[in-house]
Amino acid sequence: MKWAPLPGETPLDDVSGLILKNIRTRKQLFLAEAENIRKATVKYLAQTPTARMAPFDLSWCLKLHHEMFGEIWNWAGRPRQQNLNIGVPWLQVESSLRQTLDDLKYWESNWSDVVEQATHLHHRVVQIHPFLNGNGRWARMLANIWLSRHESPLVLWPEETIGSISVIRDEYLQAIRSADQGNFALLIAMHQKYLEQ
Hints:
Number of strands: 0
Structural class: mainly alpha
CATH architecture of the domain at 26-154: Orthogonal Bundle
CATH superfamily of the domain at 26-154: Fido-like domain
């Protein structure tokens, strides 16, 4: 099984970690991952998660990725041990995540806009790219759990189009790249655009 990556997607060259051996197509993989992610969504977003349930520490952040992808990939929840076409060098993944979580505490205390906090969290963890795959979906879930913990409306990302070639994917990647350059306006605007009404 091998397919060409979408623009801006981490190439998935090694599928040896795939637990479900009957998956042969991108669509089958997407559907299997979506079901696994649905379970994590129900756990964390069907109610307001407490600080104990979602402590936003390194261990829990890794656990969240495992909860989202652990039935599909045997490496889910484990920081990558190789460099990719995006992200910090693999040896800096854990320290970068710890720094981000420390910054998040600062943002929480000093920035009044929780959507802005969630946007910066989302961007920073995408930029770190801690895992072999699933980083964008994990980052969006992480940001939504942060919003929910602060009793804010969630961002209802159109995952079915953001994960495939589409106008929204192009818009999303443009907003991420703009934030990479220090301009968060587009990414904040996207978060606000998709806030549940």
